[in-house]
Amino acid sequence: MAKNEKRHHGKSSRKDEAQEAPASAPEAATEAGSEADPNPARSKNLSRKDYEKALRELHVELVKMQEWVQHAGLKVCIVFEGRDGAGKGGTIKAITERVSPRVFRVVALPAPTERQKSQMYIQRYIPHLPAAGEIVIFDRSWYNRAGVERVMGFCSEAQAKSFLQGTPLVEQAIISSGVILLKYWLEVSPDEQTRRLEARIEDGRKIWKLSPMDLKSYGRWYDYSRARDEMFTATDLPSAPWYVLRSDDKKRARLNLIKHLLAHVPYEALPREKIKLPKRQGRGDYKEVDHPIRYIAEAY
């Protein structure tokens, strides 16, 4: 990553932000694949070698960002939303696979208990927000109410509309407490979603990803589109914008999102002393114990 690019991480001007921010709700919500691709280079396959090289460079920057977040006591909250099969899990894994789970914490809450259903809706999410030196990633978030709960009838229309009305106020309170809030919507096309869900059915390694709810919601494409559009209209605000990522190309999507994340969390590379392994001690009077060791069979 270029030196001058690193210097400006997270410090873009208002003008730059306006240029980069997602389009107005109707434009940002346009179905993937229904308009000309603004980046023709995407049609060229990204090789595994090029992907891994780019990902390695981004991972190095994520480690620098992690160290700065701890050093400066930043609080970062990242929200991932999108349809089933949009690539949220794989993107989160690409972000977290080379950083510390003590700093990067992934939150994927199960269905609410009966007690939680009686609480204020946002209440069960609040305890998971980041403290100083933490980056919390929500694999689905409080926006469940605007999406799956609304579409599948787990909440009333009145509850959904009340959520959309109140959420900007809640998020403003979160931001005012010092949290850097980033909201990502991964946009997948109908054909690509079908391909990915069919792959889950056929692959024993992925079948666990396919829930009964995924099957029920698959046929409700345009109900989800309407819910998404209303969500953008109500909650895509200058203080807490939605960033929309085209995710049909998994490798490019992961790289693009990590690059965007690095640009929106201000960090600096901390100085490091040169590391040298110390000299290993001599054997001295150490003797191996006379005890049978149960080595695992080397089947491969």
Task: Outline the secondary-structure elements.
Layout: H1 3-7, H2 14-20, H3 25-28, H4 48-72, E1 75-82, H5 88-96, E2 104-107, H6 114-117, E3 134-139, H7 148-151, H8 157-176, E4 179-187, H9 190-202, H10 212-218, H11 221-235, E5 242-246, H12 250-264
Parallel strand pairs: 1-3, 1-4, 2-3, 4-5
Brief account:
This protein is α/β, with parallel strands linked by helices and 300 residues long. 43% of the residues lie in helices and 11% in strands. The N terminus is likely disordered.
Overview of the structural elements:
It is a single chain. The two termini are about 40 Å apart. Strand 2 (about 105), helix 6 and strand 3 (about 135-140) form a beta-alpha-beta unit. It contains twelve helices and five strands. Strands 2-3-1-4-5 form a five-stranded parallel beta sheet, sandwiched between helices. It is of the alpha/beta class and about 300 residues long. The model is unreliable at about 1-35 (pLDDT under 50).
